[in-house]
């Protein structure tokens, strides 16, 4: 079984292909801006050409579902959905905290993932729950924890100043290999795929016009 992984929930997009034995056959990263919707499909096409040359067929696809970048999630998930539907293969949604956790199988303490939502607002993923909070309102953990994510360093400093027992990991962004391995772990446990739907915490920032939407054209 050859797995394809996509994740564009963070500051960049990543794509990886793993062989049945776990060997990483292909891995590439791309910036989210400008034009992820134009750059990501050719990266997928190149990966497919390489696998065809190796006479490998992609049998499963895993995609990061966030939370994270609104544009990145929409683009990568739509691409994964189209590829899975066209290829007739299973599609596995992978939450951000599951991807980070797979990188630390022997951590021996709970892992909190802290991501920048926007100015003065964080996404906190802990104990299988995702929430949003202000930077200053990050809760103090009851016991020892580890931190990952793009805001892990600042959060670790803030919590340590409040006396918390915090281990700062070196994971700041998701590697698409982790996305694949998280889905593989779920498959090995006999669990069904999670839906490949974006995990939004906050509602969209766009607002309806005061006068309402214009009527549909006739």
Can you offer a commentary on this structure?
With 218 residues, the protein is an alpha/beta fold. The protein has 2 domains: 2-95 and 174-188, 2-Layer Sandwich (Nucleotidyltransferase, domain 5), CATH 3.30.420; 104-168, no CATH class. The protein is 30% helix and 28% strand. The strands form 2 sheets. The chain has a 5-stranded mixed sheet with strand order 3-2-1-4-5, sandwiched between helices. Strands 8-7-6-9-10 form a 5-stranded mixed sheet, sandwiched between helices. A hairpin with a 5-residue loop joins strand 2 and strand 3. Helix 1 packs parallel to helix 2 (70-87) and helix 3 crosses helix 5 (176-188). The longest helix is centred in the N-terminal third of the chain and has 18 residues, at 36-53. It starts with a strand and ends in a 30-residue tail after the last helix.
Summed up:
The protein is built from 5 helices and 10 strands, in the order E-E-E-H-E-H-E-H-E-E-E-E-H-E-H. It has 218 residues and is an alpha/beta fold.
